[in-house]
From TrEMBL:
The chain crosses the membrane at residues 130-151, 163-186. It is found in: Membrane. This is TM2 domain-containing protein 2. Pfam families: TM2. Residues 1-22 form the signal peptide. Belongs to the TM2 family. It comes from Lingula anatina. Its main location: membrane. One of its GO terms (cellular component) is membrane. Keywords: Glycoprotein, Membrane, Signal, Transmembrane, Transmembrane helix.
Length: 197
């Protein structure tokens, strides 16, 4: 009889525990830390950081579509009036690369909390136009005396001069290899080298 009484007490304990857990899950008084409260006029309720929805601006890049950075082509006044955009493109070092913000939109059928169109800050002003460093270096070493490397980079005027002088009788050819390796000879359009993935 003592064993059946123990079994009844244990089962009653587990029933009460399940009942308490169910009541706790159904309460609306979820603790939201100070400073993390957000209200959305579209949805009409406050943001709950412990809820199922993520803030739209926190979604990963796979779920948003962003516009290309605005090109101001060196015009500081236009960038200051708009408040964002790129004045200068590219750079060899991280510190040289200008950063801007772009307009992003959440993709259809993705649920999130807040505005579905927002600004994403910290986007680097880098563009790629299909110039590979290794390919250009090979062109420079093998066919640099004909100016092929400069033709590929878009430096057409100097490429014709290099072609006519056969690489400046070899001097210009070697100087261009050195300039290319040290990062001084870059694509004419200001784009960066394509990453080798």
């Amino acid at each position: 009889m003592a064993a059946s009484l123990r079994a009844a007490v244990v089962s009653l304990f587990f029933i009460l525990l399940q009942f308490v857990l169910i009541l706790n899950l159904q309460t609306d008084n979820i603790y939201v830390p100070i400073g993390q409260e957000r209200y959305s006029e579209e949805e009409g309720y406050h943001y709950n950081p412990e809820g199922p929805l993520v803030l739209c601006e926190y979604l990963p890049e796979e779920f948003i579509g962003c516009e290309e950075p605005t090109d101001h082509d060196g015009n500081l006044t236009a960038r200051d009036e708009l408040g964002y955009g790129c004045v200068k493109w590219g750079g060899q070092k991280y510190d040289e690369v200008e950063k801007t913000k772009v307009v992003c939109r959440v993709l259809d059928y993705i649920e999130c909390f807040g505005n579905r169109t927002f600004f994403k800050d910290g986007v680097p002003c880098i563009k790629y136009t299909g110039h590979y460093f290794v390919v250009t270096l090979i062109y420079s070493v093998l066919l640099g005396f004909l100016g092929i490397d400069r033709f590929c980079l878009g430096h057409t005027g100097t490429a014709v001069g290099k072609l006519m002088t056969l690489g400046g009788v070899g001097i210009w050819w070697i100087v261009d290899i050195i300039l290319l390796v040290t990062g001084q000879l870059l694509p004419e359009d200001g784009s960066n080298w394509m990453p080798n993935y």
